[in-house]
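$ run holo --ligand "adenosine-5'-triphosphate" --emit tokens
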Amino acid sequence: MADVMEAITSLAKRRGIAFQSSEIYGGLRSSWDYGPLGVELKRNIRNAWWRSMVQLRDDVVGLEAAIIMSPKVWEASGHLEAFTDPLVECLQCHQRFRADHIPGFHAPQSGHEEDETTVDLAHRPVCPNCGGTRFTEPRNFNLMFKTHMGPVEDEASAVYLRPETAQGMFVDFVQIQQVSRKKVPFGIAQIGKSFRNEITPGNFIFRMREFEQMELEYFVEPGTDERWHDYWIEERYRWYLDLGIREENLRLREHAPEELSHYSKRTVDIEYRYPFTDWGELEGIANRTDYDLRQHEKHSGQDLTYFDQEKGIRYHPYVIEPAAGVDRCLLAFLIDAYHEEEAPTATGGTEKRVVLKLHKDLAPTKVAVLPLSRNEALIPDARAVFDLVKVHWMCDYDDAGSIGRRYRRQDEVGTPFCVTVDFDTLEDRQVTVRERDSMRQDRIPIANLVAYLKERL
Ligand code: ATP
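-- output --
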């Protein structure tokens, strides 16, 4: 299975989807850059999320809050105190790890000191790097990136890069409710960068220190929260299926009570079967109760309640939060779409074909226009066809190399349609349209091309 990841990281680098940041300086661990095709794929993921969460609903509105918020936000939200991971250091090789990522480690229970005699030797934690079995005691390591605002570097100027986008929705709750005139239940959605100083980043873009989140905070009347929680779990699960993720690679996982975040009453993760972890979190759907609104009310002194005019009652709404990561989604979509097949060649044999069977809405390029050769006679028509389609979709114009090779280049980045302009085109005003998955070819009049593609894209 590891070779799937190798194939994908190498494809991602070779075709400019995603690659190591600052590579000319040897790279920066956990930072990744998205190239031309990655930018399109990422934008398509964001757009699919926004469309389903905001555009197609009348009960959700958008927000773009600042990344650097008042430090008081993080005091009130509990992140300064509790947004930590248990850090341990191997006493042999001095590498640092998240204790909860090493099998056999359990966080020290209060009132229960573990000693040598109670440790089950067969299940002792083992250093993933050197095999050592002695570690420092776990200590809480805060994951927030700290910096300073303004020219003076002192405690008074300390600010944090947000570790989640959610707090923007909580502190702006009253403003957004008033300007949008939405009644509870309603939601505020945001897509944007978040930052976490992860102890062990890795697995390509699965765990980064700078990443992007797509979060919805959905405000509901207390007492209706459990029902809405179930509703959003189902909605979000279906979103991945609708975008082509295979159901056998998707599952829901209920958090155990000891695993819940400090604000959560219940959390269910949508997990994907990533090749490197077996199952890994793709999205978390939490019932954050009224914790955040109450905390901000307490710390800011502002009234953050909602008044239900019909019922004549005032309350702090409960919040259901579906929180997904753009980068983790992108990785899951890539893995799920990646196929290696045997395809027939022109000479009657077969050859390996790599094809990304991405959902059409996600494919970075929708249509590739390919003149059969670089022959000058073909250029005006090929250019005219490109001009015709580029106003509707992201298109590519490629005239370099054999046509077979160009088909393969488009297949491996998931382009749903290739349109070939050949010498017959000059006579019959028709082009050949090749579909990615079936490799079926249709001869279509140029005059009908846009309508033909619109029906299928
Ligand atoms: P994990 O347990 O894997 O550390 P988490 O439970 O802390 O994740 P959440 O706080 O629920 O994650 O964040 C919501 C989503 O944001 C995650 O499901 C994931 O898609 C994304 N995400 C969180 N941390 C990272 C990261 N370091 N790199 C990339 N994406 C991330």
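-- notes --
Residues 25 and 31 are 13 Å apart (CA to CA).
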